């Protein structure tokens, strides 16, 4: 694959979502200028969108590798519950962070091992684990929230969800940093190349000597870490853990990934696309309400944008494939 072809492929993924982002922003500026010409809406975006974007980074690698994980929302709840319990018991948010991240990675490891060892499609395995982990957290918590008022006083909390310069939410900077790291992994490392090969054709990748099983397990572990990190950031932001944590993220994360141009078939993806996709999803909810429409339109517009985006990328990939083969 020559450099010119790779550049054209990257632009083919990034230009459409960039255009959608700009057009959507322009539309909301026209329909709700009082909101979208104010800095406060963008500070709000930088506060809320990172929670989705951080998980979407991990999901991008999973989908590029040709897998699906529908249990990440329950992972968010379970790992952040352990964070809350350990932090409250020890009085140390740092200790809770280690426990929560370890739990998230462990859940991802279990998911990945079951998928690889049994050969059952990951979408089926992780549906089961979604119920399992959510059930575990409900049993352990008794369905009760865990208040964490003491974390508001900790410098540790300011490091993760404070306001840099009194203005910029720290979670926004963490999300940007994670996006850069994910982009380097996917586009500038041999492991990223291996993930694309595996997602494109697993058997060919195995014959090439690539560590297919290890790479497949690893993407589930990475997603587990990002899910746990996002859940912990949410706990720190609100100084509270709640049993329904993570619910509602499924659509938002997958929409961010697929609207951004990551192939539903695996083998290709765009970190910039995922980042822009998360921005689009976050903007729609605020824009619909600010424009004076009923909030019921939000899910409709989310679904419409997702279906149109996936269809567009699939048709574009098909035409590009026909062109290469002709």
Structure description:
This protein is an all-alpha fold and 326 residues long. Helices cover 78% and strands 2% of the residues. The protein has one domain (3-319): ABC transporter involved in vitamin B12 uptake, BtuC, CATH 1.10.3470. The chain contains 14 helices and four strands. Strands 1-4 form a two-stranded antiparallel sheet. Strands 2-3 form a two-stranded antiparallel sheet. Helix 3 (39-64) runs parallel beside helix 8, helix 4 (72-90) crosses helix 11 (212-238) and helix 13 (271-290) packs antiparallel against helix 14. The two termini are 17 Å apart. The mean pLDDT is 90.
Core attributes:
326 residues; mainly alpha; ABC transporter involved in vitamin B12 uptake, BtuC; two-stranded antiparallel sheet; two-stranded antiparallel ribbon; 14 helices; globular
**Domain module count:** 1
If you consult CATH, what is the topology? ABC transporter involved in vitamin B12 uptake, BtuC
Mean pLDDT: 90
| Distance linking N and C termini | 17 Å
What is the gyration radius calculated from CA atoms? Answer: 20 Å
Helicity range of the residues? over 70%
- Strand percent estimate: under 5%
- CATH classification, class level: Mainly Alpha
**Unreliable segments of 5+ consecutive residues:** none
Count of individual helical segments:
14
Tally of strands: 4
Q: What string gives the helices and strands in order?
A: HHHHHHEHEEHHHHEHHH
- Content-based structural category: mainly alpha
Sheet of most strands: 2 strands, antiparallel
Globally, the shape reads globular
- The main sheet orders its strands as 1-4
Please tell me the CATH architecture by its name. Answer: Orthogonal Bundle
């Amino acid at each position: 694959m020559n450099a010119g072809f790779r550049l054209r492929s990257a632009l083919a993924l990034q230009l459409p979502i960039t255009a959608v982002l700009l057009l959507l922003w322009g539309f909301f500026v026209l329909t709700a200028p009082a909101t979208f010409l104010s800095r406060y809406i963008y500070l709000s975006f930088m506060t809320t969108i990172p929670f989705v974007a951080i998980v979407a980074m991990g999901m991008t690698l999973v989908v590029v590798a040709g897998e699906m994980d529908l249990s990440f929302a329950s992972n968010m709840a379970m790992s952040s519950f352990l964070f809350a319990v350990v932090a409250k018991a020890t009085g140390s948010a740092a200790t809770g962070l280690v426990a929560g991240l370890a739990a998230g990675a462990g859940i991802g490891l279990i998911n990945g091992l079951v998928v690889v060892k049994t050969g059952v499609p990951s979408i089926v395995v992780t549906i089961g684990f979604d119920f399992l982990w959510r059930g575990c957290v409900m049993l352990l918590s008794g369905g009760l929230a865990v208040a964490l008022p003491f974390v508001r006083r900790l410098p540790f909390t300011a490091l993760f969800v404070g306001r840099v310069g009194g203005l910029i939410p720290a979670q926004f900077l963490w999300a940007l940093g994670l996006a850069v790291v994910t982009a380097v992994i996917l586009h500038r490392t041999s492991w990223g190349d291996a993930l694309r090969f595996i997602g494109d054709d697993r058997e060919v990748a195995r014959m090439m000597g690539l560590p297919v099983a290890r790479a497949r397990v690893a993407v589930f572990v990475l997603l587990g870490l990002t899910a746990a990190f996002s859940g912990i950031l949410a706990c720190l932001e609100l100084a509270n853990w709640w049993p329904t944590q993570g619910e509602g993220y499924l659509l938002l994360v997958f929409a961010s990934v697929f609207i951004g141009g990551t192939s539903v078939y695996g083998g290709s993806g765009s970190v910039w696309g995922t980042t822009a996709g998360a921005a689009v999803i976050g903007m729609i909810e605020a824009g619909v309400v600010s424009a004076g429409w009923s909030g019921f339109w939000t899910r409709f517009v989310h679904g419409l944008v997702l279906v149109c985006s996936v269809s567009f990328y699939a048709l574009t990939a098909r035409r590009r494939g026909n062109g290469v083969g002709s």
